[in-house]
What does this fold into?
Amino acid sequence: MIQDLLLTAPFTFLSAMAIITMVVDALIKNSARITSCTA
Amino acid sequence: MITLIVSGILAIATFGQHGIGFNGMVTGGGFASYFDVLFSLGGLLTIFAARSYLQREGIELDEFYSLVLFAIGGMMLIGHSNNLLSLFIGIEIMSVVFYVLSGYMRSSVASVESSLKYFLLGAFSTGFLVYGMALIYGATGSMDYNHIAMNITRGSLPLESLLPIGIALMVIGLSFKAAAFPFHQWAPDVYQGAPTIVTAFMSTAGKAAAFAAFMPMIMVLMPAATAKLQMTFAVLSAATMLIGNISALAQTNIKRMLAFSSVAHAGYLMMGLVAGSQSGYSGIMFYLTSYMFMQIGSFIIVGLLERRGEEHLEIADYAGLSKKHPVLAAFMAIFMFSLAGIPPFAGFFGKYYLFTAAIDAGYLWLTIIAVLSSIISVYFYIGLIVKM
It folds into this structure.
């Protein structure tokens, strides 16, 4: 499994980063919305 | 950007690690790693130029960067695929992101129209692709490239008659992705309507991904019908070059002109597939690298000169650019010379490799057509420089 991931390291890393970026972006937007609603 | 730089470095680091992973679904090293670097480079250039463009158009949302990363992920999966299923998943990840990115400028009717057009035609072409894959599976009994190649070489095919139909349908599906004749009609409309920076990305990295899908497939399937496949690609290549260049002659919009020129470049790239040799594939890879720089470079300049609301895109608007923006005009001239294939620019060497490979394979007539169509292309590339 580790060998497989290493073989496709650029793809694995890029996909993981794409998902993290999307999730973090959604969380930031959501928290900003909650903050503005509370205010 | 950091993600893309790191993934590019990882691709270079894994260049020598040849092997098959995930139960034969993907392959690594060499060819796949080279394409990883190429896609990372394309994404890097796109993201580098995107910020100012998106801010000016008032559409800078963080999703854009994630979508570009997802598209590159799909492209990398295409380059790594060793199985028809992983190839299909890669193509779909890339295509779905492209449909979204084309319509990214939601307030623009042209952008939304281009997205819808691309989606409908893309879905149609995917049908061809999947049906072709299904028939190849039916004919060879496997989805794995190595098994398909082995079965074809041995001649042990359960349903041999399905193979040529499957190959033809797959060629149709992939020709659509590469914007090759006669499946190129979507390209000018979509490239014109989509945000300029997205067009730059689609017409370079997207095309590279289509050829990353074509090359291993042809390597595997070529022994099944070498002469017929070579002749099919030769005819497609000749028609693509001629139609692309002749149509570009009549354009007054620079994005549309570059879109037709990208159709013509798909024709040049197909010459490497016609050759079906190591030199042909190397030629494709070299040409794609140089094409990536010259095409994205041209679109970045178009994006810089464009005004808010997709204005200032007519070729006539470029008159006097050398006086107003001499540096941009100089770079545009370099990119145009390179696209036209004039020495000593990279485009010339790319064409030289592809033409040599086609001559070595015995396709002199195709090379003559390619040279003639290059001469036609000089008219509109140099015409723009003269205008500037």
